[in-house]
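Hey L., structure's done. Input below.
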Amino acid sequence: MAHEAASSEAPLTASGFRARKGGPPLVCVTAYDAPFARLAEQAGVDGILVGDSLGPNVLGHARELHVTVDDIVHHAAAVTRAVSATLVIGDLPFMSYATLDDALHNAARLVRDGGATAVKLEGGAEVAGITEGLTARGVPVMAHVGLTPQSVLATGGYLAQGVNLAGAQRVVDGARAQEAAGAFAVVLEAIPVRLAAVVTEHLSIPTIGIGAGPNCDGQIQVLHDLLGLADRPPPRHTRRYTDLAGAALEALTQYCDEVTQGAFPSVEHGFKIRRGVIDRLSFD
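Output:
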């Protein structure tokens, strides 16, 4: 049975998202423009993250670290213009929440100028004060622990987290600190399945997994991975549901061939001019 379209329901708020804890799994995806945001809502997605994955997937950057607040605001505005019921979360990019003042200023931009209904930040206990400050001022915060792409320079790469006792405890402590600080949900990225299950069981807020197994309260994936648009092999934690890149390449190749061979455009693709106009034209 297809997931019921979110657009048939009232707009989903952060509090409504949180209330889904333990209920039907929450479905989230990244999106960065109006056409794909509209399709995501029609498909029944609950939450759209305008993530800093924008960098490698849309803007041509090697990593998420190059994405700016301006980038997220621009793309969030496109997404929010295209949806009416889906919760839209704007990512706070690298170093945009280094202090509470920074976080408040940049979160305000995501909400006011980008139209986002919530923001996401990476980190656990070390940024719980930022989360607390934002939520105290009315900004809903989705947390993100485990593998945090904005920290890859420090961690040595896109590596699974929580695989030993110290790492697993950091995930637990980080998730609990974010819950206590007022986060309405927490993303668990690239952590062991059993650890994700235990964290999910012990939190009162929804866990949204990406590479964290089936026992989370919901899942999120990068749109370009799901649709076969990424120019890299799909990560282990995702599934490629179609090959849009292949279909687009085939269509564009056919277009190139038809133009060069004179098969497109034909007369039927043109417009008519009124009788006698050509004869009365002057080229003097």
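The first helix runs from residue 14 to 19. The mean pLDDT is 95.

-- N.
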